[in-house]
């Protein structure tokens, strides 16, 4: 059955992939964006530029009723934080803003609200076994704290209002159009830069953007998803060195990976004041994604090899 879906952040990296997946299903899609003509073809744009979705209830167009909302818009990691109180800024967007959208959506007839959170709501690392949805969350930074608070506030709101809440916690998402650290890694490999990654054996869960989009479509349509929290991955975890070698192969570039001992990398991180970045590079972060398989019968439609191939092909065609 087709449905009417509203997506916040529809013009972003993930939002565009989700829009495509819904349109291919035959759904009608409204994208809430700040700038016109930034969504994929076929999405009806709703321009809304107020900070933290303030006043969205009053400005919700009468004609824009929806069955479900996928909430992607968020304040994400800032490389150079300029706010005096970062946690307050993250809370304003990620908690208060999400609740405003949920309340407005319910009044517009939505039955389901899919909140795209992050594994950072639980933590930055896994200690010897993959993280499950039942594990006690211990977020370590303002972004992760705000995402966890948003999850809990939305679950409470859903309980009070009857709006069906679904929480999805992805790990690192990659694919055509990826930015930040993943793009920097591809750029370094493509340019033949020697990287000290040859000895890193710790594995990290990844998620191809089209796999995430497919999972989110299931979370908006499947009755069994209501009230659930899901960890979603590609289903195969790579070490950082395996990831770099795979990317080198797909980029048709030499894999210049130097086997620097992990202890030395850790020491270099402490001496340079970049311990957090180095720990993310050398530490394990694996997610257990069996719950969504068992509950919804969902399996990632694309392999990690396919995802890396698509990402590398995009990089080669645009750089």
Automatic annotation (TrEMBL):
<dbReference type="InterPro" id="IPR001509">
    <property type="entry name" value="Epimerase_deHydtase"/>
</dbReference>
<dbReference type="GO" id="GO:0004029">
    <property type="term" value="F:aldehyde dehydrogenase (NAD+) activity"/>
</dbReference>
<dbReference type="InterPro" id="IPR051783">
    <property type="entry name" value="NAD(P)-dependent_oxidoreduct"/>
</dbReference>
<keyword id="KW-0413">Isomerase</keyword>
<protein>
    <submittedName>
        <fullName>N-acetyl-alpha-D-glucosaminyl-diphospho-ditrans, octacis-undecaprenol 4-epimerase</fullName>
        <ecNumber>5.1.3.26</ecNumber>
    </submittedName>
</protein>
<dbReference type="InterPro" id="IPR036291">
    <property type="entry name" value="NAD(P)-bd_dom_sf"/>
</dbReference>
<feature type="domain" description="NAD-dependent epimerase/dehydratase">
    <location>
        <begin position="5"/>
        <end position="230"/>
    </location>
</feature>
<dbReference type="Pfam" id="PF01370">
    <property type="entry name" value="Epimerase"/>
</dbReference>
<dbReference type="GO" id="GO:0005737">
    <property type="term" value="C:cytoplasm"/>
</dbReference>
<dbReference type="GO" id="GO:0016853">
    <property type="term" value="F:isomerase activity"/>
</dbReference>
